[in-house]
């Protein structure tokens, strides 16, 4: 490692870094704007100037931009030299000539990098006497505010948006000091990572519009480490909430990125950043609800729907306890349905209460089998489930049936970086350091190969080197062919034809030759053969290279792989529950069904659900939002959302991560497991299992119980400390040391300071008291360091710039039995017959960043941009069926009918149609995909009627 | 070999009438002989010849042209695609030399480019021309077509293996495009901002391929240089530097214009003989030797020869060799303000000292010129000029813009002070 001298002190530094990184890594405060640890240097702002000396005799030195200067062994530099300080002060003074003095009303104030850097340079008084230039701001959609007058033209926004995230509708426009960062015209930013502009922008040009709706200063937010619940990638987040006051309930205010090098790094997707607001939506269940006894004469409720009234929680808990008692006495059947969007702890509690044999996953047969298949393939020692940095290093990528930008967005962003590896190699050959971003990006080399086969590719189309749009069956055959080619099969035996054949041969060659090949697939196509094909390819590559091959299998939900661990294969699907309920011949005991955080209408078809509900005397629901299942529920308990509770999710990488409560839910909201434990506590006679549930006091009690019961989860207890843990005798403070209004906020009612609520689950306080420093513990999610109020300060808590967060364990991997897949079943043969008829169309799911996820779709801003129901047809099929783009069509599938708008697509495979998965009005369609559907133009009568409605 | 002594190779085809020599006329005057000769030479020999001749880039920086070419990977194993680009984005204030060459003798440029392209083994060349140069663009388009018709450009030139296409690209207009990497960005359809170096264009330039960018006048030197040889070329200069050059004078002189003169011609000779001296009743107060982005020199420098290094030692730059004369009745603050407004407007907006510093300079100069200046403004101006110094900014635009400011503050400080103390412009 090179040794350099900075202001007389000697430091050992990383030779692959630039001087700015080296200084920051050593804890030297050096101001900067355009440099970003994930995006490198471009030398635009000139803020990080230092003096470089030729040798020990050189007294004057030369001003250099530290971000553009490679560290040189034996180099002598000065950060504090008067000339360097003067220059840096001058740069700030230049930048501030046009910057408005609106910090008090600017939402960046208090976490503004420009404020911090201005302070750091010591620039205080203004000498510029001219007018400031002003800009018109743009409407950029419901997520992002635009206030261009504050811009200091560091170019970070467009570098992130265009260079890093592949967007093209935000750009630098104009020139000189009129340079404008915006769109050609007003409109929503199209890229799904636009929210990162809020954190990338060093000042208040781009701010979080959803946060504006309920703004408080950063220092008035209480926070804790959390995990994003809107997909299975498992990004780490730092949600911020403000406690109740001024007549407002405590609400969740925003989500910002919480650095985790191996998963999200510095960036989140827009679903993850803006989806939090579902917690505050009107459909939120805050009180205990029960079916009204009296008959309602007139109601908008459909047949079978319940009408609810609020009841005291104690009454509800006792009623649940009574059901438990009856069940223990054998007079009632108690069945539990878990959920892939709820924590391991909640699912385990329900499973414990009803018994493993009466616990169901809450998934349909198909989805559950896919998850078990993924779980099984990941146990193969030839398969390695890659981290985000590993994905970014891949030099050849094959994506099978997974529209990553919509199903695992953060992974898509990582794949986008992998596309640059050829360019980076070219830079390395030219001896250009990789942090020299402007230099590296102007090497206009080819992208690294990224081959996609599937139904739809939303975001990566611009970097994909080859695409094959085909039905899932064909994609499976394509994957199988690649696997066999890599295994050494005679190409003559490959039955694929035409373009697919040629691409399979090319893909096999590329993957076999790659140093770090990566295969990506997942549940997106809901087709096991594709996943098996991906597994077989990876295994074949591993056999050749004698090294495990990277295979990323995307799961659909935050805890999909977690719930899979709690259910045995062959058991736990909703269809099995229906069958079992149907088959209980002599058993006429009443049935109570406990549904945990799950909307069954999104999971199973209508027949299955009717079979379940018609034989269920009572439905008891624990959930956070009113949904279709709630309409069938007799008793509803308000469940805590992720930000209001502690628990564990297992992500697609089989990594278990713990999230902590950011604040306490309002009303009677509490964790689902606590409702169950409360009910268990009221039971008169307790079985061993019920006693166990009744005895739980802390979230970690459950975590420990799980780790004892499930061998693959035995490391779970190492996820983090329990509630008794202390640092220097102190808990970790959720509120910042500057938290304001601590005594004033309730003063109109009561002047005495009330005691803070105690957190029974984590060693963290709902107050200002305790450890404030993120350097002392990774449990501190308020990233702050003296002089560094913005999230830029994260570098102070990393092992070197861009390294792991100090002290963080980063989650624990499941410890599954290593077992090779004995063989890979052959994919089902796809019918060669391609003539589509209108009544025999294969309906395939299309995923949407906004809308396909159940919870985030209820966040106000996201709800406002969700697409309306549509169906995508191949242009040829459309002509054959006389359907034009924009026509209103009826889609019939499994005897259910849906109205939607027809859209034409050049890539929709012939004979198939694409239907958005899970979006409002089509929720109940999602379990039927893929499936055979009939498309028709609705009867004119029907159309007129609906026309009148509008 | 011509028997007469050729001393004005750049302008020998240019007469008093505003017409361009067509190809017949050009060929009749010995045109394309250099190109035909070059086609028979190994490319390396051409590079070496140009290097030996001492030809220095006429765009302003004065870098040895042959040396620049030699950095392009050539021969076996070198990249198959390479580009040659002509920088015809002539926008330096006070400069109008390339325009003359392109409007009046477009074939000379084309011939020079063809030889250069052949030397670096490029098969595609672009002329990136200033958008306002309508006439030059029309005449170049016609000349390119004529050369193609004659088999001097296009596929298999003169029946050989070598093929070359030259395309004319009309700029949207931006001073920064004079910076070669900003030019390349603009040519690619990107924002015209300078690129980070390394990689240098010779290694990774246009669309990531090895590229050489030269000024119009530089190319125009090549045909005769090839034909007549390095020694002849060196002999053209009167002083240290080789060749002849277009020099120009603007300002309140009797006969402003541009003339081809030997390198090393003294400034006094250019201003007094060729430009006819200052208009009656005016005295020379100072001059910018090489365009708007060079330091002012004073009357004491009039006898210096126009050689790159001599002017450099005197504290300025030869730049484009087109002199702007400041007389004693013109307000130097107004002149510097005018130039600063130009540079502030033309800043690409990439780096802070230029983007935000120049408008501040303009704001101060405007106040001083209007009589609202403050005594502390001079210090502030000096500070700004220093902040825009070489190395402090991303490219050379701001350091160039700072040159007239910093030198005017030295040479004409009293004029600035007078503005401030009198509360008005004393030249009005």
Which of globular, elongated, flat, extended, rod-shaped describes the shape of chain B? globular
Calculate the mean pLDDT score of chain B and round it.
95
Low-confidence residue ranges of chain A: 941-950
Secondary-structure element string of chain B: HHHHEHHEHEHEHHEEHEHEHHHHHH
Number of domains of chain B: 3
Major sheet strand order of chain B: 3-2-1-4
Which structural category fits the helices and strands of chain B?
A: alpha/beta
Keywords for this entry:
heterodimer; A: 950 residues; alpha/beta; 7-stranded mixed sheet; 6-stranded parallel sheet; 27 helices; globular; disordered C terminus; B: 428 residues; Rossmann fold; Ubiquitin-like (UB roll); de novo design (two linked rop proteins); 4-stranded parallel sheet; 18 helices
Can you offer a commentary on this structure?
The complex is a heterodimer of chains A (950) and B (428). Chain A has 950 residues and is α/β, with parallel strands linked by helices. Chain A is built from 27 helices and 37 strands. Chain B has three domains: 23-235, 3-Layer(aba) Sandwich (Rossmann fold), CATH 3.40.50.11540; 238-325, Ubiquitin-like (UB roll), CATH 3.10.20; 332-422, de novo design (two linked rop proteins) (Up-down Bundle). Chain B contains 18 helices and eight strands. Chain B has helices at 23-28, 33-39, 43-53, 65-70, 97-104, 106-120, 134-149, 180-187, 216-228, 230-236, 267-274, 308-313, 332-346, 352-355, 357-370, 377-387, 397-411, 413-422, and strands spanning 83-88, 124-129, 165-170, 211-215, 244-250, 257-262, 284-288, 322-327. A four-stranded parallel sheet of chain B has the order 3-2-1-4, sandwiched between helices. Chain B has a four-stranded mixed sheet with strand order 6-5-8-7, with helices on one face. In chain B, strand 2, helix 7 (134-149) and strand 3 form a beta-alpha-beta unit. The termini of chain B are far apart. The chains are: A alpha/beta (950), B alpha/beta (428). The A-B interface holds A 42-47, 49, 62-64, 68, 87, 90-91, 94-95, 97-98, 127-130, 133, 152-153, 155, 172, 174-179, 430-432, 436, 438-439, 442-445 and B 174, 176, 191-192, 195-199, 203-204, 207-209, 344-353, 355-360, 363, 367, 380, 383, 387, 391-394.
């Amino acid at each position: 490692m090179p040794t350099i001298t900075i202001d007389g002190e000697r430091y050992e530094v990383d030779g692959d870094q630039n001087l700015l990184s080296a200084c920051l890594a050593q804890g030297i405060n050096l101001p900067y704007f355009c440099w970003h640890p994930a995006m490198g240097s471009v030398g635009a702002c000139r803020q990080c100037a230092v003096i470089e000396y030729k040798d020990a005799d050189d007294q004057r030195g030369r001003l250099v931009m530290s971000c553009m200067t490679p560290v040189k062994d034996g180099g002598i530099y000065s950060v504090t030299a008067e000339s360097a300080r003067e220059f840096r002060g001058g740069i700030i003074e230049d930048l501030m000539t046009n910057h408005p003095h609106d910090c008090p009303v600017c939402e960046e104030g208090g976490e503004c990098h420009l404020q911090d850097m201005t302070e750091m340079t010591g620039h205080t008084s203004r000498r510029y006497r001219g007018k400031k230039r002003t800009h018109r701001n743009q409407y950029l959609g419901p997520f992002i505010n635009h206030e261009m007058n504050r811009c200091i033209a560091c170019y970070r926004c467009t570098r992130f948006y265009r260079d890093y995230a592949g967007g093209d509708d935000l750009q630098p426009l104009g020139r000189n000091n009129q340079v404008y960062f915006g769109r050609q015209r007003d409109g929503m930013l199209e890229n799904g990572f636009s929210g990162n502009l809020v954190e990338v922008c060093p000042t208040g040009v781009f701010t979080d519009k959803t946060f504006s709706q309920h703004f408080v200063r950063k220092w008035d937010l209480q926070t804790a480490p959390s995990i994003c619940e809107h997909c299975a990638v498992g990004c780490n987040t730092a949600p911020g909430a403000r406690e109740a006051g001024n007549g407002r309930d405590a609400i969740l205010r925003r989500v910002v990125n919480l650095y985790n090098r191996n998963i999200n790094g510095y960036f989140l997707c827009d679903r993850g950043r803006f989806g939090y607001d579902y917690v505050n939506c009107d459909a939120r269940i805050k009180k205990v609800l029960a079916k009204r006894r009296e008959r309602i004469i007139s109601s908008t409720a459909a047949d079978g729907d319940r009408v609810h009234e609020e009841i005291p929680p104690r009454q509800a808990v006792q009623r649940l306890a009574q059901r438990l008692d009856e069940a223990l006495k054998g007079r009632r059947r108690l069945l539990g349905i878990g959920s892939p969007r709820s924590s391991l702890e909640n699912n385990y509690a329900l499973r414990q209460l009803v018994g493993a044999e009466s616990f169901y996953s809450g998934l349909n047969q198909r989805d559950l089998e896919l998850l078990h298949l993924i779980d099984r393939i990941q146990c193969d020692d030839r398969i390695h489930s890659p981290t985000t940095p590993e994905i970014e290093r891949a030099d050849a990528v094959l994506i099978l049936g997974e529209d990553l930008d919509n199903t695992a967005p953060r992974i898509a962003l990582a794949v986008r970086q992998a596309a640059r590896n050829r360019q980076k190699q070219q830079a390395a050959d030219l001896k250009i350091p990789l942090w020299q971003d402007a230099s590296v990006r102007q090497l206009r080399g080819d992208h690294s190969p990224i081959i996609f086969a599937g139904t739809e590719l939303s975001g990566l189309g611009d970097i994909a080197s080859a695409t094959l749009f085909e039905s899932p069956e064909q994609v499976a055959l394509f994957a199988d062919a690649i696997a066999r080619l890599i295994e050494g099969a005679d190409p003559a035996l490959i039955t694929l034809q035409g373009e697919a054949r040629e691409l399979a041969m090319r893909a096999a060659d590329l993957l076999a030759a790659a140093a770090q090949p990566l295969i990506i697939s997942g549940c997106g196509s809901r087709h096991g053969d594709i996943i098996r094909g991906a597994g077989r390819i990876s295994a074949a590559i591993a056999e050749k290279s004698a090294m495990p091959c990277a295979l990323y299998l995307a799961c659909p939900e935050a805890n999909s792989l977690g719930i899979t661990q709690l259910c045995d294969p062959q058991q736990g699907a909703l269809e099995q529950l229906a069958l079992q309920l149907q088959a209980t011949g002599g058993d006429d005991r009443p049935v109570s069904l406990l549904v945990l955080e799950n909307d069954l209408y999104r999971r199973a078809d209508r027949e299955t659900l009717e079979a379940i509900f018609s034989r269920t005397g009572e439905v008891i629901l624990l959930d956070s939002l009113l949904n279709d299942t709630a309409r069938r529920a007799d008793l509803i308990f308000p469940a805590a959302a992720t930000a209001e509770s502690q628990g564990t999710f297992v992500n697609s990488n089989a990594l278990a991560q713990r999230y902590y409560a950011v604040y306490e839910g309002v009303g009677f909201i509490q964790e689902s497991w606590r409702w169950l434990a409360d009910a268990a506590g009221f039971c008169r006679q307790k079985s061993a299992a019920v006693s166990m549930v009744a005895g739980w006091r802390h979230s970690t009690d459950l975590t420990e119980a799980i780790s004892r019961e499930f061998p693959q989860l035995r490391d779970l207890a190492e996820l983090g400390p329990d509630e008794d843990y202390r640092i220097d005798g102190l808990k970790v403070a959720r509120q910042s040391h500057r938290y304001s209004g601590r005594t004033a906020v309730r003063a109109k009612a009561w002047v005495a300071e009330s005691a803070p609520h105690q957190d029974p689950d984590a060693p963290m306080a709902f107050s200002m008291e305790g450890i404030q420093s993120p350097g002392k513990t990774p449990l501190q999610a308020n990233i702050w360091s003296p002089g560094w109020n913005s999230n830029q300060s994260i570098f102070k808590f990393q092992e070197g710039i861009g390294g792991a967060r100090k002290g963080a364990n980063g989650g624990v991997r499941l410890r599954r039995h290593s077992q090779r897949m004995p063989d890979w079943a052959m994919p089902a043969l796809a019918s060669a017959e391609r003539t589509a008829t209108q009544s025999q169309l294969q309906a395939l799911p299309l995923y949407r960043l906004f809308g396909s996820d159940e919870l985030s779709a209820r966040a106000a801003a996201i709800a406002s941009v969700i697409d309306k129901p549509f169906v995508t047809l191949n242009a040829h099929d459309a002509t054959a069926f006389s359907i034009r783009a924009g026509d209103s069509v009826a889609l019939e599938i499994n005897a259910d009918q849906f109205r939607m708008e027809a859209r034409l697509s050049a890539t929709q495979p012939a004979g198939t149609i694409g239907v958005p998965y899970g979006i409002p009005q089509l929720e109940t369609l999602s379990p039927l995909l893929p499936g055979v559907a009939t498309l028709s133009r609705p009867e004119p009568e029907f159309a007129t009627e609906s026309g009148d409605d509008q | 070999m011509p028997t007469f002594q050729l001393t004005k190779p750049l302008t020998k085809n240019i007469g008093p009438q505003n017409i361009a020599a067509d190809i017949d006329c050009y060929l009749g005057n010995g045109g394309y002989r250099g190109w035909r000769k070059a086609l028979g030479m190994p490319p390396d020999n051409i590079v070496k010849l140009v290097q030996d001749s001492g030809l220095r880039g006429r765009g302003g920086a004065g870098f040895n042209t042959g040396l620049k070419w030699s950095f392009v990977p050539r021969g076996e194993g070198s990249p198959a695609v390479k580009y040659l680009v002509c920088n015809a984005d002539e926008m330096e204030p006070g400069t109008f030399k390339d325009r003359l060459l392109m409007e009046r003798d477009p074939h000379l440029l084309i011939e020079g480019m063809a030889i250069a392209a052949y030397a670096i083994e490029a098969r595609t060349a672009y002329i990136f021309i200033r958008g306002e140069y309508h006439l030059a663009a029309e005449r170049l388009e016609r000349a390119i077509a004529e050369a193609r018709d004659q088999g001097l450009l296009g596929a298999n030139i003169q029946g050989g293996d070598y093929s070359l296409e030259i395309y004319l690209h009309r700029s949207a207009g931006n001073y920064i495009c004079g910076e070669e990497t900003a030019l390349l960005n603009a040519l690619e359809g990107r924002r015209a901002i300078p690129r980070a170096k390394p990689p240098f264009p010779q290694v990774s330039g246009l669309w990531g391929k090895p590229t050489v960018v030269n000024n119009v006048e530089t190319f125009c030197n090549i045909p005769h240089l090839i034909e007549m040889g390095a020694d002849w070329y060196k002999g053209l200069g009167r002083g240290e530097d080789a060749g002849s050059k277009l020099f120009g004078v603007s300002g309140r002189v009797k006969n402003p214009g541009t003339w081809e003169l030997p390198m090393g011609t003294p400034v006094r000779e250019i201003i007094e003989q060729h430009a006819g001296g200052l208009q009656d009743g005016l005295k020379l107060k100072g001059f910018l030797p090489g365009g708007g982005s060079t330091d002012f020199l004073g009357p004491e420098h009039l006898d210096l020869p126009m050689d790159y290094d001599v002017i450099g030692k005197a504290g300025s730059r030869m730049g484009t060799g087109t002199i702007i004369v400041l007389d004693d009745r013109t307000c130097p603050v107004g002149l510097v303000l005018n130039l600063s407004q130009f540079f502030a407007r033309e800043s690409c907006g990439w780096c802070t000292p230029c983007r935000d510093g120049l408008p501040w300079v303009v704001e101060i100069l405007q106040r001083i010129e209007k009589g609202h200046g403050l005594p502390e403004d001079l210090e502030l101006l000096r500070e700004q000029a220093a902040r825009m110094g070489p190395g402090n900014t991303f490219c050379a635009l701001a350091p160039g813009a700072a040159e007239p400011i910093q030198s005017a503050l030295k040479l004409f400080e009293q004029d600035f002070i007078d503005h401030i103390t009198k509360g008005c412009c004393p030249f009005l």
